[in-house]
Amino acid sequence: MEPIAEKKRAIFESTLKLVRENGFHGTPMSMVAKHAGVAAGTIYHYFHSKDQLIGELFTYVQQQVIAVIKKENCETISFKACFFNLWFGLYRFYRENPEVLKFFEQFVNSPYNTARPPLEQDELHALLLNFFERGTREGKLKPIGPNVLGTLLHSNIISTVRLVTSGWLILERKELELIPQIFWDGMQRTK
Fold this sequence. Notes:
9 helices; mainly alpha; elongated; 191 residues
């Protein structure tokens, strides 16, 4: 991810917070500019429209998730260890960045989502596919399609974070560790 200007980052971070609180329609550009501490004209220097801002914000937050996957997807350790690193790395990221999770939920269910490239061209999707293809190639996983496993992994983490952050589910550390363990037990190839 190439470095971005501090003002642009402030606009992105402000938009994330405001969209979490007010939704897309309740977050006008003027509110974003004020919250980011930039002049109204400055926001239009970076983004010609709210549509462009939301589209680039999606890319910005997706790159953060991709960075977590790249960091935790280490080919120098066992696939199993890598799986648990990836699960907990993404879990921590979404727990520490609840506005990202809320933004993704709103984005996926909005008209803004139509401008995204097809799933096959999505870098996040490709990284998860490659990860699970590695596990299959190494004989660690049942012969289940990587699309299925990638979808299950990401949705499992997101659901867990949602339930924990909402207070609906309170988990001790050992209970939390059971969730990826059960996932692992279900997909691993046994001899």
